[in-house]
Design goal:
single chain, 16% helix, eight-stranded mixed sheet, UDP N-Acetylglucosamine Acyltransferase, domain 1
Length: 205
């Protein structure tokens, strides 16, 4: 009896996960996203903005509850906040509940694994000067201040640990591993293990 009740209780989640790949492919098309063969998005992925997104073959993205137990039921999201913003994802890329905020460029190579709840953001989003943020500095006195953005690149075969944060201007070298919970503020070379806040190279591999 308990087994039957559990199945009934979990039925909405099971149905959502079962049919979400088909629904998500329709959402991608409606948003103008170009994607390759075997695109599999489980759960609900929030896509917003007006930039250009290209996804390669064999893309896997799990999002939300009843999919990946270490994603804390967090919903994945992709935002391009600028018409010129570009996201390019290579072949055989897998990620879970990843959040991407792109103003400039995000390039993800082939065979990249991105752990649960990783945040990738190529912009500061807000001005550093508090007077600009609270609108007390006249625009004429801003002296060319703008929100800073810089491209992010994750090269082939890299592995990003769960709950890491990758900030603007960072390149993560091919085959490198970023430890879980790291905050990556500067570029990481190829063929190494790096971790921490701020993320630093631990050893070469």
């Amino acid at each position: 009896m308990i087994r039957i009740l559990k199945k009934i209780y979990n039925l909405p989640c099971a149905l959502r996960v079962r049919f979400s790949p088909y629904i998500n492919r329709l959402v991608l098309k409606s948003k103008g996203v170009k994607y390759g063969a075997n695109c599999m998005i489980l759960g609900r992925l929030n896509i917003s903005g007006c930039g250009n997104i290209t996804i390669g073959d064999n893309f896997y993205f799990s999002s939300g509850n009843a999919v990946n137990p270490i994603s804390s039921n967090l919903q994945g999201a992709i935002l391009t906040d600028n018409p010129a913003a570009t996201i390019k994802i290579g072949d055989n890329v897998g990620m879970s509940s990843t959040r991407m905020w792109v103003h400039d460029t995000l390039m993800i190579g082939n065979n990249v694994n991105i752990g649960a709840c990783v945040l990738i953001i190529d912009t500061d989003c807000h001005e550093l000067d508090f007077r600009v943020r609270n609108h007390t500095l006249p625009s004429s006195a801003r002296d060319g201040q703008f929100v800073k953005s810089a491209p992010v690149t994750i090269e082939d075969d890299a592995w990003i640990g769960a709950h890491s944060i990758i900030l603007k201007g960072v390149t993560i070298g091919a085959r490198s591993i970023i430890g879980a919970g790291s905050v990556v503020t500067k570029s990481i070379p190829a063929d190494c293990i790096a971790a921490g806040n701020p993320c630093r190279v631990i050893r070469m591999i």
